[in-house]
Amino acid sequence: MTAAPEPRTRLAQYIERRIAALALEYAEVCRRADISDETLGKIRKGMKARGSTYLKLERALEWEQGSIATILEGGEPTLRSDAEHSDDAGRSTESQGFTQELALAQRLLAATIREMDLTPDEAEEVWRRVRLELKATHRSHASRNRTNDRNSQAG
Which portions of the sequence form the region Disordered (predicted)? Predict the structure, then answer.
């Protein structure tokens, strides 16, 4: 049985997964949070940050305020209720659906990873495979929808 990761290591893992789920580059996270890349790098390495930095990071990652403290205490982050709509103006319905699917998968996987007591490396591999499978499934559905739309317009 593997030991649970230290709280800040656990936080770093959640941050990495959320950045991946949002399909953001680190530079974009820094821009959204108004923090330096050095600060984000330290947090990603499990170092402590100021409370004000955590607040900014929560907003950038579209988590409810207090989610980082909850993660540090062993709980799960909460997605902001307005997160679904924050960048929706520039996204297609398909893209929004994919983002929601990733968020749901992340929550389900977090519980499964804890239950199965996976190592961080094992957890990261599972998350990588789930993202790939979701992308492939989403592309397949999107392609089928476009074909159906063309057929209905032609008929």
Answer: 73-98
